[in-house]
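Q: Entry one of two.
A:
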Amino acid sequence: MDRIIEKKRWTPKKIIWMSLGAVFIIIVFYSIFFGDRSSKLNVRIERITIEEVKKDFFRDYISITGTVFPIRTVYLDALEGGRVEEILIEEGTIVQKGDVILRLSNTNLHLSIMNREADLAEQMNNLRNTRLMMEQNKLDLKQQILELNYRVEQKRKEYENKESLYEKRFISKENYEDTKDEYEYFLNRKELIIETQRQDSLFREIQVSQLEGSVRRMEENFKLVRQKLDNLSVKAPVTGELAYVNAEIGESKSQGERLGQINVMDSFKIQAEIDEYYISRVNKNLLGEFEFAGQTYKLEVKKVYTVVRNGRFSVDMVFINEVPEQIRTGQTFRVKLELGTPKEAVLIPRGGFYQTTGGQWIFVVDESGDFAIKRDIRLGSMNPKYYEVLEGLEPGEKVVISSYDNFGRADKLVLKQ
């Protein structure tokens, strides 16, 4: 008799498949709720730059290009206009103070001098004539006073004589009074002439003083005009190198026009242009340095030109101690300009990552070296070699500093050999 065989519900095969399914479901749930959901990017190590974070002294400086200039430049301008007649010294020559560089001619200036000479001669002649007239008037008045004194003395004697006769009744009263009146008339006339002489003397003295002042002013003006004539000979105001001459024979030059330039070669300065970003941090007395012929030379900021042109401003730097012997005008050097004193800080080398992140985050390499994770950081000052790290990194950690342009929005870099 046949018997019914009961089918088993939990066969080994079924148990295996159900176990695999359960494991798969668990894995899926784990991945959803607990797994790493960050975006990843595979990157070959040889295509990126990895550097170590370190702790060292941070030098806050900028690297700028400086050009050598003479310590002082003196410009030659035409003090008087004229025609260029002669150029005595060529460009590039060392000139001494007072050397005549070129000569101008000015016909109108010569005519003006001749006219002023004539005016001065005429005024001096007037002064001379006035003095002669004063002397002549003095002599005339002295003669008049001398005659009046004689007449007064005669009238006095006659008056005293007739006064005595009148008292004795030998002459009439009318005769006596006539003599008295004549005597008093000559006395008054004498006083009038003396007063006239005094007034005339004062007037003549004032007149002479005015004429003398006029002559003196004309002489001073004449000296100035003569000096203008001397200015037609353009002379070197200082000793130095004649950098250039802006004149040609026969050329007409206006008053105030630039004729040339003299470079004072006693020393040199270095002038550099700096990005306007640093204008608030660059001041006088900041120190800098550059290397030339295997030696380091120290500089100091002497002047800051605060006018910004095309996003840049200029500074003048002078040598502190030694000046290179072989230095020449127009040479350029890379100058390290210190913006502050060195300080201990956490540092990372400069790299292309900054253009993408703005210094707000960076990829930090895991200790295993297999991947790098995005991490927020905060940077401080920078110099041409390093960034100062304020937060987010520790010395000894390694970071990716090359450009992030090809990383997209990846949060994790998987590093491949």
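Q: Entry two of two.
A:
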Amino acid sequence: MKELVEVIARALVDNPDEVVVTETEKEDATVIELKVAASDMGKVIGKQGRIAKAIRSVVKAAASKEEKKVIVDIQ
């Protein structure tokens, strides 16, 4: 899942070198934290959060294949 989020985020931003994705296992879910440069935050979130919602939907679909719960946190 980490690689999926990283590929999507790097394609969206102007500074792909500043994209940092960390994956943390919790007892009931996997938390993926996406950090981008402050100037790229709007590109990752999108108007009214549409791009962020789309990223979460894609990750959720990939996670359902493995029957896992995944939370994407954009910072």
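A: Comment on entry two: Strands lie at 20-25, 30-35, 70-74. The chain has a mean pLDDT of 94.
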